Amino acid sequence: MTWFEPERGDDKLREFLITALIDMSASLCLQDSEGRYICITTLPARWSLKSGVTPSDEAIFGADIGARLKEMKAGLAKPGDHAELEIEAGDDTFFEFRCRMIAMADQEVSLMTIVIDRTEDRRRERLLRALLREVSHRSKNLLAIIQSIASQTARYSGTLETFLTKFRGRLHALSQSQDLITDSSWRGAYFRDLLKQQVDRYVQENADLVKVSGEDVLLTPNASLHIGLALHELVVNAVSHGDFLSRRRRIEVSCERIETDAGPQIRVLWVEPVGSLDSEALKAARTARFGSTVLERVVPSSVNGQARHSLEKDQVRYELTFPQESYE
Question: 104 pLDDT band (50/70/90 cuts)?
Fold first, then answer.
C-alpha cells in the first residue's frame, strides 16, 4: 500500500523520500518509454553529469557500466518486467542496479532504476567466508591433534581403563585451552591462564603450592593447545606420582623470553621437588612419569621447539623452548 496526505504538499513528500533514500544508501532514477531520463535522485558523488550534457547511461555511469545497463534494459518491455545487475565500480565498491518497468497513474510506461550501494554487504560476506575458512582450517587442526593424542595414549596404555582415564583428561585439557582461545577471538591464550586451568582442576585447594614467575606471554592458538596439554601432563604427574602435596613443597613454574643463537624464544620451566629416591624407586618413578611421549615429542614438535624432561633424585625438571612465532 502507498498513501500520503495530499494537504501536506509535494515539497514535504519530496524531502522525506530523498532523505530516506540517502539513509538507505539508495538512489532512484526514472526514464520514460523512450529511455529519456525524467528524474535522478541521490546518486553517489562518484557519478556526475557535466553541465549541458543530456542524461544517458553512458554520460552518467561511463562507457563500460552504461553499455551493460543499456543491454539489460533492452530486455524490458512491459510493466512488471524487471532485471538486476551487480557492478564492481572500482576502488573495491559494489553497486546493485534494480530495473523495473512500471505503469504510471496516466498509464504511461516508465523504467524505474534503483541503485543500492552494496559495498559493506560484500565486505561482510568476504569476511564471513574468510572466517568460515579459518574455522574449517582450525577444526581440521584440532581433529589432527585429537587423533595424535588418541594414538599416543593408546600406545602407552596397558588397559582400556587406563586409556579412557588418560584420554578423557587430555581431551578436557584441550577443550579448556580451546575455550580460552575462543574467548580471545582466536588470538590465543595467556600462559598463566593455561596453567591456572590445570591447577584449579587438580590442586585447587593447594594452589599456593604452584608458584609461577616470569612473563605472561600471549601464545598463538596452536601453541596454546599444545602447551596447555603439556601443563596438564605435568600437573597430573605431580599429583599422581609426586609428593609435593604431602611435603608441602612448592612447584616452581616460570615463563620468560630469552635470546638464543636461533633468535628470540620463550622458555617454559617446570621444577617440581620430590623426596630423595634410591635407585629402585627412581627407576619406578621414571617408568610411571615417562609413560607418555606427549611432553617429550608431541608438544615440542608441534611448536617447533625443544624439550628436556628429567627426573633426578630430588626434583622433576621440564624445560621447553620454542621460537618467537609461537607467541606475541
Answer: confident
